[in-house]
Design goal:
Order of helices and strands: HHHHH
Distance between the termini: 25 Å
Helix content: over 70%
């Protein structure tokens, strides 16, 4: 399967990475509504989909691979941030009804998700440098 077919299958919802959030993030990159999508990556993706670009070039393949990876990492970062915030909110709402053990477990889960979000953010930033 070619890169063009991979991208089309994700957007159509038939690809192996075709979760709704990934598709929406990818469409945002193509539509120009994502802040972290450089114009050259968007142009490369569009030209591959339109068939006006040679898909055998390694730089195009790398650009598309990096764009897709950045979208996945952005989605993962948002998921981890939401989970961490949910843990904090859960502790705030439950207050004294939580046992000390439950509070420690919740705080550890919040910290774990915050670290994972930071790692995903670092991956996105590293891809911007490429």
């Amino acid at each position: 399967m070619s890169i063009k077919d991979d991208i089309k299958s994700v957007l159509a919802g038939t690809g192996h990475d075709s979760s709704t959030s990934v598709k929406e993030e990818f469409k945002d990159v193509l539509g120009g509504t994502r802040d972290n999508a450089s114009s050259s990556i968007k142009d490369d993706i569009k030209s591959v989909l339109e068939g006006t670009r040679d898909t055998n070039s390694m730089s195009i393949k790398d650009s598309i691979k990096n764009a897709v990876g950045a979208v996945k990492d952005s989605v993962s970062e948002a998921t981890h941030k939401s989970t961490a915030e949910a843990e904090r909110t859960r502790r705030d709402v439950a207050g004294d009804t939580m046992t000390p053990g439950e509070k420690v477990a919740s705080a550890a889960n919040e910290a774990k998700n915050s670290v994972q979000a930071g790692i995903d953010h670092a991956k996105v930033e590293a891809r911007k440098e490429i």
